[in-house]
Design brief:
The protein is of the alpha/beta class. It has five helices and 17 strands. Helix content is 18%, strand content 36%. Bound molecules: fe (ii) ion (2 copies). Keywords: Coiled coil, Dioxygenase, Oxidoreductase.
Length: 296
Amino acid sequence: MSGVKKIEHAVLEVTDLDEAVEFYTDVVGLVELERADDVVYLGCGLDENYDLGLVEGQTGVEHFALRVTAEEIEEYESRLDDAGVETERVSDEPGQTDGLRFSLPSDVEMELVTVADSSYHHPVKPEGDRNAVTPRDLDHINLMTHDADADLEFLEEHLDFAVSDKIVGESGFTIQAWLRHGRFHHDVGLSNGNDVVRTLHHLAFQMDSFDHMKKFCDRLASKGHRLELGPSRHNAGGNLFAYFWAPGGNRIELTAEMATVDPDAETGIREIDRETNTVSTWGGVVPTKEFLEEGS
Ligand SMILES: [Fe+2]
Ligand SMILES: [Fe+2]
């Protein structure tokens, strides 16, 4: 059985490191675990693992990682090697005991990792000083990719991802896709974009409940920040959502109640319908052109 527990961590580039660290620690309530090689490692604090790394630069994804088992690292390494994909073993990040790094066809860097702390989350055994709105964990990543079909095929063929849902254009190319490696509806989302510089549509944090999201949004607003979209419930995955742009230049989603999916479930395929609001099942929440087309 797969050892994957959704996304393990992501390192994002931010335009102003100090401003971003202050936001993610003070407003979001993440715990600073370590600083090394210009990267600030932050965790949600319910285990010793880091969830979000920040490095000063532009915006978007420096790399992201899925947790797997040691056996899976061996297996995927040999499959990627056989397929002619360059890989590298990396284990220099805090808490990361082993890692296999490679590039997706869109050039985004991905890792499969094992971590030292595999304990389960216990609310009364926090690491560091969490606050009342701190997310439970990282949930999923949605990449902005200039070739969603190439990334989708790579994730399916080499890494055993399954496509839970996708939206296709008139000629059948993928506009958006949601892929799972474990039992949740999506661990990785793909949003087709024309801009090869943009690598991230959003990074999502897992919240306990709608009430937890409400408290977070109250805190966000009290600190002078506004939501971009939501809250509402998504079509794909059925998860609750609220989106905002974080200081440093990346879009963040708060989410809860992500559906679990039968491993044998077939892909749900929908054609794009620009007249219909496909983002929110409830209606009343209309995504802007910027939300649909812009990333970081
Ligand atoms: Fe990593
Ligand atoms: Fe999402």
